[in-house]
Design brief:
The protein is an alpha/beta fold and about 300 residues long. The protein is built from ten helices and eight strands. It has one domain: Rossmann fold. The longest helix is centred in the middle third of the chain and has 29 residues. This is 3-hydroxyacyl-CoA dehydrogenase.
């Protein structure tokens, strides 16, 4: 009888898998039959300190006790050589690699004019550069075997906007461009690449203030959105059932899954003799103004309670 497990026999790397969303993905991938490389250096939410090897080892122990197969990895995705060692461990341990989930991330929020250069660069390195490093290391194996799946994590902070997250938003929107480029470049080799924007309670949003009753109620609602609500979408995108899905952006929020829009022209203006700064001020911009986007934040667009 054929297996009903969607990832049976596949080898999947999940970065930042020691806690939260990454842990949920690793557990489900293993339950769906995958051999999982559980990567997590055990650092804090800002990329410093932390618990070292412990989180990744605990997830491996959970998977093993449940009858699954997994190995722990403690490398950082923020540098090219350590990141490549994550992929190498999959090859050395299991002899192949079928999927990469770029979930690792840190937060260093600050209003823009007060954001340090270090805070900007480190968030870019972990999220955007880290997604590139692991994907690039896996790409040649995917090319050789003519198959493979990438799932990258984006955010509505980049897709829509949020206060105090210029570093995070820039990284997360950059990941969208990275994913689409991988999808275009590697589709001929049977490789797909997609983005997921998660709504889930995790350490990375655990610092939200709870001083007012409204804030407390909001956090209580968010705490109901566990990482287990994100994992099924990710596992599906890694499976053979989703091999024709590529270059897309999805969002997962409680029991809702959204297909997100991508930038396309909205409307245009034309002037036979060309435009001047004056004619743009008088005619061009007023003609376009009704289609301008507001300075929305994520919460303005996703304004209803999850169910």
């Amino acid at each position: 009888m054929a297996s009903t497990k969607s990832l049976d026999g596949k080898v999947i790397v999940v970065t930042g898998a020691g806690r939260g969303i990454g842990r949920g993905i690793a557990l489900l991938c293993a339950a769906e039959g995958a051999k999982v490389v559980v990567n997590d250096p055990g650092v804090g939410t800002d990329g410093s300190g932390g618990d070292g090897a412990t989180p990744a080892e605990q997830v491996v122990e959970e998977i093993t006790k449940a009858g699954g197969t997994a190995v722990a990895n403690f490398e950082s995705v923020a540098e090219a050589i350590p990141a490549s060692k994550i992929i190498k461990q999959a090859m050395d341990t299991y002899g192949k690699i079928d999927g990469v989930v770029n979930n690792a991330g840190i937060l260093r929020d600050a209003i823009f004019h007060k954001m340090s250069i270090d805070a900007f660069e480190m968030v870019i390195k972990v999220h955007l550069m880290g997604s590139f490093y692991t994907s690039h290391a896996a790409a040649r194996y995917f090319r050789e075997q003519n198959s493979g799946s990438f799932v990258h994590f984006t955010s509505t902070s980049g897709l829509i906007g949020n206060f105090g997250q210029a570093n995070y938003a820039a990284a997360k929107l950059g990941i969208v461009g990275l994913s689409k480029s991988i999808a275009l470049d590697m589709g001929r080799f049977g490789v797909n690449s997609n983005c997921v924007s998660p709504f889930a309670w995790s350490r990375m949003i655990g610092s939200i203030p709870t001083e007012t009753e409204a804030e407390k109620a909001r956090v209580e609602r968010m705490q109901r959105m566990g990482p287990e609500k994100i994992a099924p979408l990710v596992a599906h995108l890694l499976s053979d059932d989703a091999k024709e899905i590529s270059g897309q952006i999805f969002a997962a929020r409680m029991n809702e899954i959204f297909l997100m829009g991508q930038s396309r022209p909205l409307r245009s203006i034309h002037r036979a003799e060309g435009w001047t700064p004056q004619s743009l001020a008088e005619h061009g911009m007023p003609a376009l103004k009704s289609s301008f986007y507001k300075l929305d934040r994520s919460a303005d667009i996703f304004s209803w309670d999850p169910v």
